[in-house]
Amino acid sequence: MKNRRLCASATVGFLWVCCLILRMALLGVVSAGAQEIRSVPADCSPYGACVEDLGTLRARALGTLKARSGVSFRPEERVRMSPEFLRALSERVQTRLEELASEDNLKCHLDKAVEEARREWLQAFRRLEERLRVAGETAEGWRAYLDWPAVRLLAGKEPAEWPKELLERLYQRLAAGHPGLELRPFTDLRIATERLLLRETARRDSEVAQNVATVAGKLAELLAQLGEHPSSETLLEFYQLVNWLEVLGIREQLLPELREVFSGANVRTSISQKLVQAVIDRPVDDVSPVYEVILGTELSGTGHTRGELRATLLPDDTAGLVVLSLTGVVNTKAVGVNGPVQLLTRGRTQMEAEKLLAFRRTDLLTAPSYSRGVTESHIDSLWAMRGGAIVEQIAWRRSWSQKPLAEWIAARRAEARMNRRLDREIDRQLKDLLGEFERRVVDPLDGRGLFPHVVRWRTTSTHLEGSGWITGVRGITTLTTAPELPEEADLAVAIHDSSVNLAIADCLAGMILREMDLRRGAEDLIGTVPAWMEVEDPAEPWTIYLAKERPIEVAFYNGQMRFTLRGRSYEKGGRSYPGMNVTVVYRLEVLPDRLVAVREGDLQIYPPDFDLQQRRLSAREQVLRTLLERRFAKVFPPEWQAPALAWHPRQPGYRSQIELRPVAWQTANGWLILAWKLVD
């Protein structure tokens, strides 16, 4: 009887254990994670032997990034156009002039040029109309000012019905110089209207053939001079003649190679990896919540990430690439629950994560983050809420058998969390930074045609290099390439005078500059007003009516810089004054402790085309000259230093200030080069 009771007790106990095991299986303690085990590739061991390394992931991300960017860096030819080539080109211009010289041939080309001008006018009209449509009610003032209903009717008529009077009135209003008319849609329509009117006039001019011959002959002469001495003065004169031919619509007949020859980048920059790292590198130390379900166990706790975020340039001749790398350790502490079993666990994941950035014209393109991690985990304690020691023993054995797979899954989950976090935080910071850059820099410049219309980047192991093309409406730049930028500099910029002269000639021609408006613009753009832009007398502020041709010019040559401002008229305190040109020349000096620009002589302030040998200034001109000399002495002081640059990052964890001090500058053959070094 006793043995029978023992046997019955053993049977009941066995059945109870079986039921408990079955219940645990249903709750997921024994068979939990079967679905996740099936999700692991069949040819992959639990230790992650088949996981792709960072190099493979980087190559895949790079391919995706380049496919999305659509812009590649085209290395420039480092050989300037030879004198022989330019002399041959000069001879071809003379030959083409002979072919064009016949009256019938020239008349045929002028007729075609008028038809082309009409098509260009319609395209410019549609671009401005779309801009006004997008602006909505805020554009009503411009529509009324331009008499837009009449202009729209003009666009719908046949060319023979276009009244000259309406075109002339439209041009006068577009060329009035009011603030806002310097924006590119207005500028394009102004230039298109002017071209159409001038081509119509030239077609009826009996002396147009003689004028074309004179301009073409001078153009051929300047081409030969540029081969020997490509000075800024020669280039400026050359650009003027090209513009005259462009206005008439016969440039392609005389010089079809123009865009090919004058196609060099006229803005170049170089940024060292050291400066990139100073802007981006920072330590990472933060705590974030963690919640995961691994093999049926719900884990909740915290993860403490410690590491370094570091930027590295990725050498590439077709793009400007930066790799953001986060290397560190993620320590986690969590409480796990699986059915009746609870446990305290801690883990340590060695993490390497990367994110690729590619520079484009006005922004940065990013690829999704990728990472690789290796996890080690430890169970500090484990207990069963029900079932006692037997359940705990089963849970311990199962946890040890599944530990490699659990660590493999934990590493992949940690990678996914890190990828999401990098994408979220970096993309957010880039969005804020680029938004401010676009608002403060790109929009004001690009809307006026002053931002490079093409920018190409490339990276070496030490520098990020960019080239830009600022062409204006003529579509040309320079025939010379920039000198090599100083490799030891952390930031270097090379600017060709064509980038200023060509773009500003379109943007500021005929514009009205008011002293108060310039002050407000500087405050909005840079947050402060330089001393030389402070209004001299708020009761009687200055107004400058810029010349309609070559309003502002610069020239960089032989260690000197020359600035010229051409005003067709001036106003001060309600009093009007005639036109005056203001010219100043500076000599660049490199001293042991600073870089200094020293003014050569006094300001040269004279009326346009003034000849000292022919006449003297009138009393009214002398008064204006004295007033302008006093005002522009603040703009062009006797001496000024090359500017230092400073940036104060707003994000926590970064350097409090990034400061760059000027170390070199020079001018030669139309190029101005400035270089800065990072202050440690």
List keywords for this structure.
single chain, 680 residues, disordered N terminus
Description:
44% of the residues lie in helices and 28% in strands. It contains 18 helices and 21 strands. Strands 11, 12, 13, 14, 15, 16, 17 and 18 form an eight-stranded antiparallel sheet that branches. Strands 8-9-1-10-21-20-19 form a seven-stranded antiparallel sheet. Strands 2, 3, 4, 5, 6 and 7 form a six-stranded antiparallel sheet that branches.
Short characterization:
Helix content is 44%, strand content 28%. It has 680 residues and is of the alpha+beta class. Helix 5 packs antiparallel against helix 9 and helix 11 runs parallel beside helix 16.
Give the end-to-end Cα distance, rounded to a whole number of Å. Answer: 93 Å
As a percent range, the share of strand residues is: 25-35%
Summing up helix and strand content along with how strands pair, one would put the structural category as alpha+beta
Oligomer: single chain
Q: What can be said about the biggest beta sheet?
A: 8 strands, antiparallel
Task: Estimate the global geometry from the Cα principal axes.
Answer: elongated
**How many strand elements?**
21
Q: Rg from C-alpha positions?
A: 36 Å
Q: What's the pLDDT, averaged over the residues?
A: 83
Give the proportion of residues in helices: 40-55%
Count of separate DSSP helical elements = 18
Q: Outline the low-pLDDT stretches.
A: 1-44, 75-79
